[in-house]
Specification:
With 120 residues, this protein is mostly beta strands. It is built from two helices and five strands, in the order H-E-E-E-H-E-E. It has a single domain, classed as OB fold (Dihydrolipoamide Acetyltransferase, E2P) (Beta Barrel), CATH 2.40.50. 12% of the residues lie in helices and 36% in strands. Strands 3-2-1-4-5 form a five-stranded antiparallel sheet. The longest helix has 11 residues. The C terminus is likely disordered.
Amino acid sequence: MPSAYDLYTFYLEPEDLRGRSVTVTVSAASVEEVFNPRIKRNEKRLVATFAGKKKVLPLNKTQAAAMIDATRTDDYTRWPGAQVTLTATNASNGKTTITITPAPVGAGAGEIVEEEKASA
């Protein structure tokens, strides 16, 4: 069945976690061009992909540092297989964001709501 996910990249947002902490397994991490609306141009970002999930998470500097802490390596090619917990929280600037922490030992995979948003 054809899917919009085959054509477009959809980004994980704090609202997708619905106020819960979700444990996921990193399936890939790569450097990609991502549009930054603040500076109105593309910039290179690390992008994390999670096993069994359609949406990806472009990492900001704080999230990248958290992935380094959680995986104990700055070599992002070694992140696949690592389990991390994603939690929606408020950043110091008051905006909602996703924090990344090491997953508790034996944590199972959680559910991320990946329904498409209707555009106006």
